[in-house]
């Protein structure tokens, strides 16, 4: 008789701290003990404090929507310069919303940053029901997103966003996204959600975390998550609500943002607006 496969909880205990010891410098961010309806993890870079402040002053200041709690944190790696690193430390102490890795933040370490954010989520914020991973140049209409989440028929096995089909590995050795054939020999990536913004339920984050140990870090972050999800038996699902759009009028931030500007009945394009923060 074949031995029983370990359950997810046992696998999590086996993997606990394995990646944490390698990738965490410290975590200034804190997660309340009560359930978080929506955890938003913004992938940022150390030198972009202006963008982080723009998010904090606009959509990132939402702590609740439709009666449900929301928490926004920023994931960064170590700064290359000592002065910027000191600024990050001070910023983290002031706002307590920064997760910092022990690796130097660079184009080559973005997958480590993604892995770090998943690690932090399942370790320090296991009460989060949904997790939105997004880029620092994406504007999130939090009330609209909350309304969309409340409309979902299921609360588990959720991995959705703008799905990329037949993504091709970058084989150019001069590219920051270069993927050696020996690391990933397949012609295409499995379906994965575009890295600008994608949503996971807590159970999927845990399954991705467990699968991550067997997947090479030489892959682009979004494809890395997709491969981990596939190994865990999770299928990426496309939703029109994550079709990012470009916006040319940035007055909404310059004039001031109010969460009531975005209603739960908003059109799909109002949930995620790409590149609105590039002017800050």
From TrEMBL:
Pfam families in UniProt: Galactosyl_T
Origin: domain of life: Eukaryota
Pathway stated in the Swiss-Prot or TrEMBL entry: Protein modification; protein glycosylation
Gene Ontology terms describing biological process: lipid metabolic process; protein O-linked glycosylation
Enzyme class (EC, first level): transferase
EC number annotated for this UniProt entry: 2.4.1.-
Protein name: Hexosyltransferase
Species in which this protein is naturally found: Serinus canaria
Biological classification of the source: Eukaryota, Metazoa, Chordata, Craniata, Vertebrata
Gene behind this protein: B3GALT9
């Amino acid at each position: 008789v074949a031995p029983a496969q370990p359950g997810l909880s046992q696998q999590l205990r086996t993997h606990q701290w394995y990646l944490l010891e390698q990738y965490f410098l410290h975590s200034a961010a804190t997660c309340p003990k009560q359930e978080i309806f929506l955890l938003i993890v913004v992938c940022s870079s150390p030198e972009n404090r202006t963008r982080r402040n723009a998010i904090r002053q606009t959509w990132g200041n939402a702590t609740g929507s439709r009666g449900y709690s929301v928490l926004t944190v920023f994931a960064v790696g170590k700064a290359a310069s000592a002065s910027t690193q000191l600024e990050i430390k001070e910023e983290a102490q002031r706002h307590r919303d920064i997760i910092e890795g022990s690796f130097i933040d660079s184009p080559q370490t973005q997958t480590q940053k993604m892995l770090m954010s998943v690690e932090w989520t399942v370790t320090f914020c296991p009460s989060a029901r949904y997790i939105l991973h997004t880029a620092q140049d994406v504007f999130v209409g939090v009330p609209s997103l909350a309304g969309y989440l409340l409309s979902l028929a299921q609360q588990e096995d959720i991995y959705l966003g703008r799905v990329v089909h037949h993504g091709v590995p970058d084989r150019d050795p001069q590219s920051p996204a270069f993927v050696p054939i020996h690391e990933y020999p397949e012609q295409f990536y499995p379906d994965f959600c575009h890295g600008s913004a994608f949503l996971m339920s807590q159970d999927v984050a845990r399954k991705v975390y467990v699968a991550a140990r067997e997947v090479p870090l030489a892959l682009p972050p979004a494809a890395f998550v997709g491969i981990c999800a596939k190994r865990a038996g999770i299928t990426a699902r496309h939703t029109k609500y994550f079709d990012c759009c470009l916006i040319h009028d940035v007055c909404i931030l310059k004039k001031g943002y109010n969460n009531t500007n975005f209603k739960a009945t908003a059109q799909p394009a109002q949930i995620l607006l790409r590149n609105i923060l590039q002017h800050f």
